[in-house]
Amino acid sequence: xPGRKPARxxxxxxxxxxxxxxxxxxxxxxxxxxxxxxxxxxxPNLHDWDDRSVSRFSRPSHPxxxxxxxxxxxxxxxxxxxxxxxxxxxxxxxxxxxxxxxxREWVEFDVPQGxxxxxxxxxxxxxxxxSNASTWLAPYWHCQAWAGALMQHPLxxxxxxxxxxxxxxxxxxxxxxxRPDEAxxxxxxxxxxxxxxxxxMSDPDTLRLLIQHEIDPR
Length: 218
Fold this sequence. Notes:
Radius of gyration: 18 Å
Structural class: alpha/beta
Distance between the termini: 46 Å
């Protein structure tokens, strides 16, 4: 519950709305313009705005949906397939070509400057929000509560940069809010697939990742 003090080292919960409104994290003056997504094929729109509670920050009751992007292909790969791979024996790591790899495609996004973004990996921002580093890697209900609080913050944020769950500490992801609505935000974000929309198994970067991490495509 808001206001409850967590045990030392535990993820924090958002302050009360009144107290949270007093928090003033610094907006980013600039951020990387190019982001990527390992998207599901067959979706009617490349801008796949998400409000599913099975996703890290999304919830059907939130005022906005979220578009999840990654800084690099490898980050996106692990965000999508990491759980499946981690559940397999170390000597038998594999992905299904038909059911997993061929059902996805790479999509690149141009994110324009001028959006109201914060970076919750910055130490000052963590303190400004009265959170801590473990908060943003906590179980999903924690993360969803914080995303909902950020959506309703008086700064009218467009999203936030956060640490990727399943890659090294320097890997970054971007959670964008569908503010003011999906159509308006989608018009701001240029999305494109690779030329010819090749299969994952014909993409050199995908093949490199499979070989590097000893993952067998079956």
